[in-house]
Structure formats: C-alpha cells, structure tokens
Amino acid sequence: MPQLIPFFFVNQVLFNFALLVLLIYLFSKFLLPRFVRLFKSRLHVDSL
Fold it and tell me: Which positions, given as ranges, span the membrane (predicted)?
C-alpha cells in the first residue's frame, strides 16, 4: 500500500527525534556532571 509510506517515514522521523531528545537529556543530566566531578577531583588531587 504505497499511500502508507509517508506515514511510515514521519513515524520514523518523530521516533528518532524523540530518542535524540531523550539521549541529550540523559547525557546532560547524569553522565556529563559525573565526568565534570571526576575531572575536578583529579585537578584538586593534582594540585596538592
């Protein structure tokens, strides 16, 4: 049924966009601050 092809691509684009937004949120909320704390502690230990 070729009339459903545009809806398939719109569905794929919306799902991937939502996944990208979720990944950016998770990285900025959990992963990146952990790396910042790690590098700050390394700098602090290195300066002693």
Answer: 12-32
